[in-house]
Amino acid sequence: MKTKPKTCFPCVLLAFLTLQVNVLAPFCVIHTFLPDLIDQKVSNIVNISSLIAFLPSSRLSAYSASKAALCAMSNCLRLEMKVNHYDHIRVSTVCPQFVTTGMFDGAYQNEHLGHFIKECVFPDNKPEDIAREVVYAITHEKEEIILPRLVGFLLPFAALFPRVITDYLFAFMGGGHGMDGFKGRGKEWNRSWRLEKREKEEEEVVVTKENTVIFCNVK
């Protein structure tokens, strides 16, 4: 008989480290450079949060909490700049879905999710795509960008429904079983991971009948 786990909650150390990386680190960086930004004519602070800050997901409690805290910090910082008449300092938050860096390999890709969820709610996003959104946020003075934009447009309407309905909707969108197939980078967690993966994506070895090897670009 299969027994249920006593808890799916992350250990305290893991939660603490997640908060350190996603909340305390940006806080310290901003605190260090803010005096210099005040002296500039125009300054921009862009924090990278996550769509998970708004979509509750099983097995992502620490990560989701840290990204939600980063959004709250950005909003407070933006208000503080306005109150203190530092209007030249613009604070933006970009909240993308998972980016294809390998950190969330296998997440939201299992059989529990339909094609619409995989393609529209959690499509593949490359780091270059997020970089373009950061540039867009700066050049267009956007305070917050939620990706994909369809989800960002629908999120405010979720607040109008009772919690029992939103819990069902979030579970349907992957909040219940989205992390069941999670693999992450595992042992591939190193600086050369992305380069190695890109090389594998760009080239594929094809063996012909004459046993000759051809390298084909599969982009």
TrEMBL record:
Chain segments annotated as coiled-coil in the UniProt record: none
Gene Ontology terms, MF aspect: oxidoreductase activity, acting on the CH-OH group of donors, NAD or NADP as acceptor
Matches recorded under InterPro entries: NAD(P)-bd_dom_sf, Sc_DH/Rdtase_CS, SDR_fam
Keywords noted in UniProt: Oxidoreductase
Keyword tRNA processing: no
Superkingdom to which the source organism belongs: Eukaryota
Keyword Transmembrane helix recorded: no
Family: Belongs to the short-chain dehydrogenases/reductases (SDR) family.
Protein name: Uncharacterized protein
Organism listed in the record: Blastocystis hominis
